[in-house]
Amino acid sequence: MEQFKIMVFCEMNRDGIPVEVSFQLASKAVELAKDIKNAQVCVLIIGKRMNYDTVIDEFSLCGIDKV
Known about the structure:
Layout: E1 4-10, H1 20-35, E2 39-45, H2 52-61
Parallel strand pairs: 1-2
């Protein structure tokens, strides 16, 4: 069975903190994934000045499958 993936790109501010709209999009993607059988939600984060563990934890709380 094919697994569908929904990809969310995370926008970061200059301080290395995800902007609020990234969390809103991630939450909406999780809602959409519930309507699709066998769907996985992934967040792509590109940046160098951030606390990766904190950011990953924050997105995990939104129900993201993979960061």
